[in-house]
Design brief:
Distance between the termini: 113 Å
Number of domains: 4
Number of strands: 31
Radius of gyration: 45 Å
Strand order of the largest sheet: 5-6-7-11-12-9
Number of helices: 2
Helix content: under 10%
Strand content: 35-45%
């Protein structure tokens, strides 16, 4: 269509058009010209050509500018439209309109000539299966639900694609040297909350480059990837109870010492840990435990007796006990060494199948515990016990001491030997060995009398038998006085 204008008017219009074409575009909108041609008003071929060129320039520069473009038909951005945000002159941000907002596609680093796309993008979930296809959804963060063992992550991803996995339940990632390469070259049992990073290598092959458990530290399996470890037991971490051969630390015990106050019917077991008597498990007491002379009940400040009622001036044994089904550790008091505190006997529930002897304690005439002190494996009486006092008698027998029965201990004894004649001597020894003759072999003497009727004192450490006894033999010279006072004992826990 052709429009006719007067010569003067035509001249003025030409000048105005030329001026408008020479004017710079408004700041921030230089490459955001309208993407549609006008349908009203006066225009000519040059105007149309300029409009088309401006629109092509906007498309070519991705509608660059420091404000969001509104140059699409209708004056609002349309879904899929791009925008190069030039707010920063050195870090220009490429954005794409989603239909409701602008999503960042990447950053153009003008100064360094770099293109930096965003890492990640969106979250989704995928159910665990033998083949768990991580690229069914495009999102980079995938929550893996369920507990089914996974042997593959599928083959529909693009080689080099990376996925972040968050596990919502316990399951096994099965190691394969080609298609499922895992840290430590072994299968991994994940727990809820654990996170892994996986990269697709192509041809159905994946490599997990990072695995971070929510609790604890990942432990690589050993021994041919059997998962059997021999370094520790009862780790605090989680669903995988990493067990060892406890027999490799057979008879271990640390802490778990006993104590009692003056005139008290309560014994306190200190914190500590030990293998059980069968060396199949570890037993750990994390806080001090008080048990009194009442019938056994679980817990602190509860009764400890496995059967019967407490008796005066009698020996009892303290055991640490554990029920492995729940891991509960408690203590028990029994009159019987070895077979006492048995699971399912008397007051002890059947689930407490593991135990470990800690030491022997004795009641006084008031049914309170006779006070003692324990350091390590050493027990010391608060008041030494006068156990043997022979007058005008040559010692030649087994003599019972104030030490625990049922078990051999190293008794600590103060001995006083006196004779009416010089040349008298005595040998004290353990009844576990053969009978001994004083002076045979030469020097086999515990005490001797070099001045008549003058006391000879000795401190003796002797291994008792299970009846609390040691043996003493004199050579029968003169009239002898023989005194043994027990100060304590050493146990072999």
């Amino acid at each position: 269509m052709r429009y006719r204008l007067g010569s003067a008017s035509a001249c003025l219009a030409g000048v105005l058009i030329a001026a408008l074409l020479l004017l710079p575009a408004p700041q921030g909108r230089a490459a955001q010209s309208s993407l549609s041609l006008p349908t009203t008003g006066v225009f000519n071929g040059l105007t149309e050509q300029n409009n088309i060129n401006a629109a092509l320039n906007a498309l070519n520069t991705c509608n660059s500018g420091n404000v969001a473009p509104t140059n699409a038909l209708g004056g609002a951005p349309v879904e899929g439209q791009c925008w190069l945000d030039t707010t920063s002159s050195t870090l220009k941000i490429l954005k794409r309109y989603t239909g409701s907002g602008w999503a960042v596609e990447g950053v153009l680093d003008v100064a360094n000539g770099l293109w930096s796309p965003p890492v990640g993008g969106g979250t989704a979930s995928v159910a665990s299966a033998s083949t768990t296809n991580l690229c069914t959804s495009p999102q980079s963060v995938q929550t893996v639900t369920g507990t089914t063992t996974i042997t593959s992550f599928g083959s529909s991803c693009v080689a080099g694609q990376r996925k972040t996995l968050v596990f919502s339940g316990a399951l096994t990632l099965t190691y394969n040297a080609t298609s499922m390469i895992l840290p430590g070259a072994g299968s991994i049992i994940v727990a809820a909350g654990d996170v892994a990073e996986a990269i697709y290598l192509g041809s159905g092959n994946w490599r997990v480059v990072s695995y971070v458990p929510l609790v604890g530290t990942v432990v690589n399996s050993v021994a041919g990837r059997t998962g059997v470890l021999t370094l520790s037991h009862g780790l605090t971490n989680s669903s995988n109870d990493l067990q060892i051969d406890v027999a490799s630390i057979a008879n271990h015990i640390g802490g778990l010492t006993l104590s009692t106050a003056v005139a008290s019917s309560t014994v306190t077991i200190a914190v500590g840990a030990a293998t059980d008597s069968g060396n199949v498990d570890l037993m750990k007491l994390t806080s001090a435990l008080n048990k009194h002379t009442g019938s056994w009940a679980v817990g602190h400040n509860s009764g400890g007796l496995d059967t019967g009622t407490i008796a005066v001036s009698s020996w009892y044994h303290v055991y640490l006990i554990k029920r492995p089904d729940t891991g509960v550790v408690d203590a028990c008091i029994t009159a019987t060494f070895g077979t006492g505190c048995a699971a399912g006997v008397g007051n002890i529930p059947a689930a407490y199948t593991e135990k470990r002897w800690l030491g022997g304690i004795k009641t006084d005439a008031s049914n309170n515990w006779t006070r003692f002190y324990q350091i390590g494996d050493e027990f010391i009486w608060d008041v030494p016990a006068p156990d043997v006092n022979l007058t005008a008698t040559t010692p030649n027998a087994n003599y019972a001491l104030s030490v625990p029965p049922g078990v051999s201990v190293m008794a600590h004894v103060e001995m006083n030997f006196r004779s009416s004649s010089t040349g008298a001597f005595v040998v004290v020894h353990s009844p576990l060995g053969n009978s001994q003759t004083p002076g045979t072999p030469s020097g086999n003497v515990t005490a001797s009398v070099i001045v008549a009727n003058i006391d000879s004192y000795s401190v003796v450490n002797v291994l008792t038998d299970t009846s609390r006894q040691i043996h003493a033999t004199g050579n029968g010279v003169g009239s002898n006085n023989f005194v043994l006072t027990t100060t304590g004992w050493r146990v072999f826990r």
